[in-house]
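Teaching assistant's notes for section 4

Start the section by putting this record on the projector. Ask students to predict, before seeing the second block, whether Proteasome accessory factor C will look compact or extended. Collect guesses on the board.
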Amino acid sequence: MATRTPAPQARDKLAFLLSFVPYLMDIERVSVADAAAHFGVPAEQIRQSVRLIAVSGVPGETTSYQHEDLFDIDWTAFEEHDEIALTHQVAIDDSPRFSAREAAALIAGLQYLSALPGQNDRAVLDSLLLKLSRGASGVPSEVLVGRAVVDSSLDEIRAALTDGRRIEFVYLNSRGEREVRSVDPLRIESVDEDWYVRGWDHARRGVRTFRLDRLSELRTTDIPITKTPADVALPETLFEGSDEDLAVLIEVEADSVPLIAEYIAPDTQPVPHGSRVRVELRLAHYHGLKRLVASLPGVVQVLEPDEARDAVAEWSRQALERYGEASSVS
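Reveal the predicted structure now:
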């Protein structure tokens, strides 16, 4: 004996309509068959709901329903082609909307998110970007966030981390020396556009942090990892000091000290010097110092040692030369 599908109750119908109306407003035009498949309901229920929506709305100032107070559909498309398209919408126009500036800021953030490696839900993000653009109170400013160039080794390290396999690679250390490392990957993290892998270094018998663009000849071994995040204490901060770190004395605006807090040497306090302060930093290499200075233009001044000052000055000189070359070409 065939079983009958129970008819939806009033509460179920209301919940369905609360989902169905925004769906129609967002998709603009859809066939009855596609809408039924999307919600997993019979096609006839979709048709009944459309007819109900067409006589629904919000009363105007006169508290009576005028034509402009009701939803309307493309009746020709509905009756002759079994397609649904709203031609007049109500109620939703009174809902709060993002300003054009707010929408532009959210769009920029979503573009950055969609550019991150391993982001597989790009279709969902693209749909949300479209909704933000159409749903703002004004036209958002055109914003384009460049995609970060991420080392191709990131996917392989992520796979090794998932599979619990040891990795080996050649690493360029802070002294410019290349060393072969054997590491149990524990965590992948990023700072701005730089990506790092933290892992258990078997040669040094401790946790080390490696920047992806400084490693090469990466390969995933068949050796299972012997250390997991549960076995070792991973510090909250990405960068941990070591005996090989370089000490650099800088002068910086006092209110900018929190921006460089992770680089300040342990047990070191900023010393006032006029309207600014002097503080010692600990860095793995001068390349990191150059990036730090560039991220805070006019705020940080390198004082000691001379090698650090020379490294930043030479890097700045090369940047100015490239800028001059680009200007002459344009």
